[in-house]
Design goal:
Blueprint (H helix, E strand, L loop, with lengths): L1 H18 L7 H12 L4 H10 L4 H10 L11 E6 L2 H5 L2 H12 L12 E6 L11 E3 L2 E3 L4 H9 L3
Parallel strand pairs: 1-2
Antiparallel strand pairs: 1-3, 3-4
Helix pairs in contact: 1-2, 1-3, 3-4, 6-7
The chain binds FE2/S2 (inorganic) cluster (FES).
FE2/S2 (inorganic) cluster binds next to helix 5.
């Protein structure tokens, strides 16, 4: 069943490459679409793109590792982006980070075993006046404390 769903996704990825005339210059756009389709970029997808665009796999890896918006590991349903920029840091972001790690049982960059949350960090999300700040998806939460952060997570469970 899953293989079928995967086949459809590969077909869609194929038509994306076709749309770009299988040009090696379309690598970033194709990878973007691939990540949208699969949710992340597993090894097989990278191989598929390399073959489809006739470029060395090493080049595909290079691009995927260079741009932080590409991910080769599955993401959770919600991404928690905790700001660790200076303004947030001096207002206690580190304590929130420790609490989140403990509560979720993950390190930065990891996803919870129930696939609900991925924990990540940002340098500044442009809301320093609200420090410390975290984003969950597109929602911004400011003036956080460790307790408030944990309470906020409940809305997403
Ligand atoms: S440093 Fe956190 S929002 Fe700017």
């Amino acid at each position: 069943m899953e293989a079928c769903a995967d086949n459809v996704l590969y077909q869609q990825l194929d038509s994306v490459m076709e749309q770009y005339g299988r040009s090696p210059d379309s690598l970033i756009q194709v990878l973007h679409r691939g990540q949208e389709l699969f949710g992340y970029l597993p090894e097989e997808v990278l191989q598929y793109v390399a073959k489809g665009l006739r470029i060395p796999i090493s080049k595909v890896y290079g691009v995927v590792t260079f741009y932080s918006f590409f991910t080769t590991v599955p993401k959770g349903k919600h991404t928690i982006m905790l700001c660790l920029g200076t303004a947030c840091y001096v207002k206690g972001a580190e304590r929130i980070l420790q609490r989140l790690k403990k509560e979720l049982g993950v390190e930065l960059g990891q996803t919870t075993s129930d696939h609900l949350f991925t924990l990540s960090a940002a340098r500044c999300v442009g809301a320093c006046g609200l420090a410390p700040v975290a984003m969950i998806g597109d929602d911004v939460y400011g003036k956080l404390t460790p307790d408030k952060m944990i309470r906020t997570l409940k809305k997403y469970r």
